[in-house]
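Following up on my earlier thread - several people asked me to post the actual chain instead of describing it. Fair enough. Here it is, all 274 residues.
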Amino acid sequence: MRSSRHSCTVVTFWILCVTTFFLLLLLPSSKGAPPTITSNSSCSTRTLLVINAANRPVNWRAVEAFNTNKTTEQWSIREITLEQFGPVMKETSFQTALEHSEPQLRSIFSRTTSTSPPPPPPDALIVSSKGVGILTFLATQKLWNGPSLLLSPIPNVCDHIEGGSWENEWKSTVTVLSSHNVGPVVIGTGTSSDEQNFIVDILTDAQLCGRLSKRHRFEKCPSWFLYSFPGDHSWRNDIDSAQNIAVLIHKLFKISDGAPPPKGSGTYNSKISD
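Reply from S.P.:
Thanks for posting it. Predicted structure:
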C-alpha cells in the first residue's frame, strides 16, 4: 500500500515537470527583446545629447528636475565630453581641436559603425559657447541636422567658418547651418551688453537673420528662435537658470513637432513659462 502511494507520487511529480517544461516552451522568449520605456505620459522619452568642449559645467540634473510638463513628451539628458578639446584648442587652434576630436564625434554620430544595429541617435543636441563650431562641423560632415539648442553661442574661425570679424564668423555660421538644413534652432542668451552686442544684435541685423517677431522667430531665418535671460555669458551655469534651460528644451521639441511657439516679448527679464 505504501509502495503504491509512493509510485503515484513519483508519477504525479514527473507529470507536473513535463507539463511545466512544455508550458515554458510555449511562452514567448524575452531574450534579446528591447527594454520597455516607461514614462509618466503615453509618449516615449526623448534624449538630448550635451556636447561638452571646454565648457564650464551646467547642472543638467537640476535641469531635468523641471521636466514636469505633462502635455509634452518627457526627455532626458545625456552628456559627452570631448577629450582634451580645451587644452588642444588653447595650445594650438580651434581647428586642431576639431581634428583631434573628430574620431570621437564620428564614433557617436556615424550610422555606419561596426556595431549591429547602430545605437539610436539623440533627438536633439545642446551646445554651449564655442560648441556652436562643433555643431557646424557636424553639419558639414553630414552627421547632424536635427533640433539644436545653442546656449550663448560664440562662433570661432576654422576651416569651414570664415574669420576677420564677429560679423563674418556669424554670417558663415548661419550660412553653414542653414544650407545644411539644421533645425529647428533655439538660442538662449544672457541680457548683458556683451551677449546682446556679440550675439543678438549681430543675428538681428537686416543682412543676416533680420528682426525678431513677437514669437521670437527670426524674420529671415524662420526655423531659428531666440530667448534672453538675466545674466552674462555664464548665465547658463547659474543653478537658478536650470528652469529656463528646461523651458527652452520644451520649446525646442514643441517647435520641432510643428506647434507654434507662444507669444511674448522679445526678451525675458524673469523665468519664462509656456
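The helical segments are 2-26, 60-64, 85-91, 94-109, 132-140, 166-179, 193-203, 242-256. That should answer part of your original question.
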